[in-house]
């Protein structure tokens, strides 16, 4: 089994419900267990700022799926939630699932880059990731807790 970390985000419809259903779908993936999940965070929109705030979280999976197979499963979960990719970049969405990191895996292909190339810039990813694995070392980037100390977290609020 390999540990994999998946970022979850939503700001349309019922974001809390979308993230709950996404975690349930992650737990049902073949050869995969949902090992842990972070707190939810309400975060300001990133990139395109004229949209509602997001709810974000990170899930830790234990899986034997290959990275591209896991990515395809994440995209299928998004589609089932009504997500249409290819629309506005950084725009509003019912569900966004990003494969952030898989242990012992460094990839840079047109389909998938691991670790995710923008982890170090995004408080909405680093905060929930630090809930689960603050001492995780991301190849080529550093420790999660150190990366988190270097980003602006203003406006990011943990939810009960």
UniProtKB/TrEMBL annotation:
Pfam families: HPPK (PF01288). Keywords: ATP-binding, Folate biosynthesis, Kinase, Nucleotide-binding, Transferase. The keyword Isomerase does not apply. Its EC number is 2.7.6.3. One of its GO terms (biological process) is folic acid biosynthetic process. GO terms for molecular function: 2-amino-4-hydroxy-6-hydroxymethyldihydropteridine diphosphokinase activity; ATP binding; kinase activity. Gene3D superfamilies: 7,8-Dihydro-6-hydroxymethylpterin-pyrophosphokinase HPPK. Pathway: Cofactor biosynthesis; tetrahydrofolate biosynthesis; 2-amino-4-hydroxy-6-hydroxymethyl-7,8-dihydropteridine diphosphate from 7,8-dihydroneopterin triphosphate: step 4/4. The keyword Kinase applies. InterPro entries: Hppk (IPR000550), Hppk_sf (IPR035907). Residues 89-100 form the 7,8-dihydro-6-hydroxymethylpterin-pyrophosphokinase domain. Belongs to the HPPK family. Catalyzes the transfer of pyrophosphate from adenosine triphosphate (ATP) to 6-hydroxymethyl-7,8-dihydropterin, an enzymatic step in folate biosynthesis pathway. This is 2-amino-4-hydroxy-6-hydroxymethyldihydropteridine pyrophosphokinase. It comes from Aerosticca soli.
